[in-house]
Amino acid sequence: ISREFARRVGAAEEEAILTGDGAHKPTGLLHATLGAELGVTTAAAAAIAADELMDLQHALKAGYRRNACYIMNDATVKLLRKLKDGNGQYLWQPGLLVGQPDTLLNQRVLTSNYMPLPVAGNSAILFGDFSYYWLADREGRAIHRLNELYAATDQVGFKITQRVDGRLIMPEAVKVLKMKTA
Fold first, then answer.
1. What is the mean pLDDT of each run of 10 residues along the chain (182 residues)?
2. Which DSSP symbol is given to 102?
3. Whole-model pTM?
């Protein structure tokens, strides 16, 4: 039970860190006004060019690029894995050693199911130094056993609560690649 709680709480935190609106949840990295700054808008509504990835990297100030990485949906990863340079070499470099992450233009790539798909109008890629996103646990986790609620069916329920808040304190430390609106 504790492993399943940890998995679900982790997934809920990941979703809130990316998409949270700040109302009873953290202010997410994709928040329209308090989240990451716009770095690049693609020229196409459903495609990303290699040059746009380079533009995204250089939209970020050099001081933030040192610790920067990408966050994107797996569908975006699939799209980008097909990109090649002028010599026909793939830009995507898979991690060849156990524990080594995949890289794109020499930067780590993380995936999240909570990042938007690479379709018209969506913010498909985050790139930046995510140490400037501050996450605060306000209280410890509380687990409640609910015996009476499920007594009629001879079951026991559990409820877990946790108070968390978060916000990007330096919006210039993270840039977003936004897909062109159709």
1. 86 94 93 96 95 96 96 95 86 75 88 96 97 87 85 88 90 97 89
2. P
3. 0.86
